[in-house]
């Protein structure tokens, strides 16, 4: 999860998020190069007092500043399109989880198990413990196996919501009457936090998302107990 004065992205907990962080750094370096070059040229032009009455055209420089931006855009577009393809692809999911947004809580259904569904509410401030985070912890956490492809189906029962986990690189709108699908894989154990990212009413800030990533064996034991 993010911390105070954190100026960078959260540590990636999925392969997609790690690739998104790499892509962010890649584009940032290109922007730094462009900013440095343009700033140098502007400062040089401002300080240069030389003029020429015979300079009417410069075909070489015009060709250069036309082709160079096109090449830079190719270096940005290729990894971007690759990432878009990887984020949309669903690879034989091992588990399907359905999330339904309500005002103002989430309901979850494990489609591969019978009778495994629950509501997830934010823990009120007066009931919090020292180990919980204000406005982020829930009474019922989502438990998911690590290193397993997960298919997430997101919808809403009333108004627009958005199911978002920044450390997974996942943000999917929950629209009434529509099923949106996203896939991800968690590559490390731990607790991941997120929040609804679509303004959905007065208590929009109070419907957090908490995922507990565990080994597959622990997940099976948990699912067996919850299904009894």
TrEMBL record:
InterPro entries hit by this protein: CcO_II (IPR045187), CcO_II-like_C (IPR002429), CcO_II_C (IPR034210), Copper_CuA (IPR001505), Cupredoxin (IPR008972), Cyt_c_oxidase_su2 (IPR014222), Cyt_c_oxidase_su2_TM_dom (IPR011759), Cyt_c_oxidase_su2_TM_sf (IPR036257)
Keyword Metal-binding listed: yes
Keywords carried by this UniProt record: Copper, Electron transport, Magnesium, Membrane, Metal-binding, Mitochondrion, Mitochondrion inner membrane, Respiratory chain, Translocase, Transmembrane, Transmembrane helix, Transport
Main localization (coarse): mitochondrion
Domain of life, per lineage: Eukaryota
Annotated Gene3D superfamilies: 1.10.287.90, Cupredoxins - blue copper proteins
Reactions mediated catalytically: 4 Fe(II)-[cytochrome c] + O2 + 8 H(+)(in) = 4 Fe(III)-[cytochrome c] + 2 H2O + 4 H(+)(out)
Residues covered by the Cytochrome oxidase subunit II transmembrane region profile domain: 1-91
Family of the protein in this entry: Belongs to the cytochrome c oxidase subunit 2 family.
Name of the protein in its database record: Cytochrome c oxidase subunit 2
Organism in which the protein naturally occurs: Coptotermes frenchi
The organism's taxonomic lineage, starting at the top: Eukaryota, Metazoa, Ecdysozoa, Arthropoda, Hexapoda
Gene that this polypeptide is encoded by: cox2
